[in-house]
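User: We ran a pulldown and think these components assemble together. Before we commit to crystallization trials, I'd like a predicted model of the whole complex to look at. Sequences follow.
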Amino acid sequence: MEDRGLQVGERGANLEGHRKGKPTYPAYFCGRTAKMVRLLMNVKPALPKGTRDFNAEQVVKRNFIRDTIVGAYERFGFEPLETPAMELLSTLTGKYGTEGDQLLFRILKSGDFLRSADATALSKKDARAVLPEIAEKGLRYDLTVPFARYVVMNQHNLTMPFRRYQVQPVWRADRPQKGRYQEFWQCDADVVGTNSMLSEVEFIQIYHEVFQKLGIKAKLRINNRKILHGMASLIKAHEFFVPICTAIDKMDKIGAEGVREELLKLGLSTEQVTQLEQLLALEGSNMMRLNELADRFASTWIDPKGIEEMWEILSYISQLGLESLEVQFDLSLARGLSYYTGTIFEVVAPDHAIGSISGGGRYDDLTGIFGLPDVSGVGISFGLERLFDILEEQGWPVDFSRTGTRVVFLPFEAQGIPRALECLQQVRAAGIKAELFPDVDVKMGKKVKYADKRGIPFAAVLGSDEIAAGTITLKELATGNQERLSLDELVKRLLA
Amino acid sequence: MEDRGLQVGERGANLEGHRKGKPTYPAYFCGRTAKMVRLLMNVKPALPKGTRDFNAEQVVKRNFIRDTIVGAYERFGFEPLETPAMELLSTLTGKYGTEGDQLLFRILKSGDFLRSADATALSKKDARAVLPEIAEKGLRYDLTVPFARYVVMNQHNLTMPFRRYQVQPVWRADRPQKGRYQEFWQCDADVVGTNSMLSEVEFIQIYHEVFQKLGIKAKLRINNRKILHGMASLIKAHEFFVPICTAIDKMDKIGAEGVREELLKLGLSTEQVTQLEQLLALEGSNMMRLNELADRFASTWIDPKGIEEMWEILSYISQLGLESLEVQFDLSLARGLSYYTGTIFEVVAPDHAIGSISGGGRYDDLTGIFGLPDVSGVGISFGLERLFDILEEQGWPVDFSRTGTRVVFLPFEAQGIPRALECLQQVRAAGIKAELFPDVDVKMGKKVKYADKRGIPFAAVLGSDEIAAGTITLKELATGNQERLSLDELVKRLLA
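Assistant: Here's a predicted model for the assembly, 992 residues in total across the polymer chains.
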């Protein structure tokens, strides 16, 4: 043992104190001391606000969503990446706007964290000035910035185009409320190093596959920031590009009238606003509206690049016949201020009043801030918690009743244990999840009750008759049916 | 959209600033600003010390270890549990000894974290006094304390015996060095609410199964803290129980001579030390040594409980015939100061100089500190990183070459894309991981080079001949062999 074993299997306290000759008695681990401490501080334990434990049922359901998304990503050639929970604050700060910076969880330096802090700043309680001196790490806020950092750090080893997926928790010091947590999971995929619209097409196929498998009716709203630029130019208000995007992005929330007011407040003329509204109100199929827009752009010499990109995507998609995903070219989708420069995606579940369940888009410059310019690509992100909430509401597309323990062995008495262990070895070798009820002295009724409470469908009873005859009595708890079976028959029955 | 969408799919910045009428321009997301910032701070990004990114190969290999352990846990009826990364400091502090407390990562309160801090303590730079006022959360240090917290918080809903497994990262502010990280994974399982030795037996079966599947030659050292108590009583030195354990635990490190010196330094007489050495030097099979010890305990009226427990475990184990796991009853295993009160486990890999690769044991009082006394149980923990290092050293028991993308489609020109998309739909529907090289204009040589670099075994070429004939040319990159196949044949070939 070359180490203290702290990082392997060593659960809890360690010997270090003793080695140094000063005994440390972790209160928790010494029976008597623990009792004293308990008397002193009998505090009910709690979770930090905005965080959750996930029990077996929740883990199984969440894994189903995760595996569905990961399965799709992998079939489309995306590779897994995992980054650490902690990033340097120099990596995180300034990437998410002023508000984002405030929502970063910062980690206090270890040891005497105040040593290098400025005394004047401390006495003035100037948190902002003290901060850089007492914290240099933070918890990741999303998966995009860690991905950008990874791409830059590994730029010489990556084969472009590089497709990666990443499914990990992120942390935000948001005020906790219903459906909003401080720790939650994102499921991202990005492909960088290509400008081809086929990447967009494949992401739409992934959307189609994921929502089909999850059984969620989904609508994909799609637009292109270049088209939004064109629209702003068309109404001769390009200097208002960002606030126009912000305003029309609120259509769902404040309605057409609200958007109109907001646009007028910006200083747009009534004529300009009306012109914009006419564009947003274009009717007909995706392709019809796109063609109409193309004509208007052409007549005023506006760059048709965005139109062409959208046309390419929509053409391929219509050939693919993705019948269970509605794809809507939607000029009112803007996705506000962001690093997107081309296609933008948003997925909503029309049957659920839950907001967007996925989003994404194309960017020209993912890694510029880290000194590597011109890394372009496109990516999407699913939020695990909302998909979970939707499926809880509408029902899950799979039966989870067979995911847990399938059979519990209940020996009547100690003599039955060796036979139970022997049977269990074979049952488990067949891949069946099986338990042994460990306390033989407990009454049979209580043993069966355990199986029932745990939702275990079968109980295997081993009394002296069964042992003598080399059989097992298998009881189906839901029906109460009992059968005397050989071990081979029992394995077959449990696999059925 | 009822929310800012921050927690779903919204990648990066948000609109909040604009809504409040004060525009925030996150430097990162605005092309022009980004360029300016880049000039100002062209810093190379880095990872925090002691943390790691895991690329595709590493994730796949780590998942193999995780899935092997989880598979075994599940076949033995353990249920998954996941707890949040952040716990209240009131949950964590005082549970891991003085040194453990120093190794906790603490999270700074959000917002004006200095507001409620004591001004005098601040001006004195008294980190210890300031700490409770500026941090109330920390990152979990292990999986045992969060499990204890969970059991207490959910005591009325848990069916006992309760078996849970938990595979998650933990964080420790340890000085980073080779093989020691600040973020690393533990794979724990515990069963609480039973005193039966069958739990120990099942954990030994799990060890057997896991190491067999991983192909790691493993030796399980097993002892019982009650036997150690008995030994200390036998030499009439029970008041030195803890330091005796600490001393003999170092046998591997400082040798018999070193242990002897340490024991004498404690104040034990030469006679006592010699007596203890004789016990440690007992020879013969596990059962023979246990019987010898039983005789000595019996002759001096020492409580035989530990002996009985060990006897029960070893008897069942010998009946089970776990041929690929060496089980050694080892009186020199003490696992130092800890919450263990009965059986203790340690697994080593004799072929690798890497220390212990798993550990665990039985405890009488897991949750006392949280106000719930008498929750007894037993648990084990695997350290993921050392298993990974061992397998990297000795080789992996499975072939990972088929885990990545199996085929990349390379259309010669844009006309081939619709056909490629059509083929890809069917290939993926058959569960095959398949990519489309998105940039058709790239030369074929470069496309093939991409497949080669990525380690993709097959390339599917679609030229005008193939499209006209309704075939695909499948090229095996390792051999250069080419075949013209129909789509059905291609699917069969790739599944083979």
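DSSP finds 20 helices and 16 strands in chain A. That may be worth checking against your pulldown data before setting up trials.

User: Thanks, that helps.
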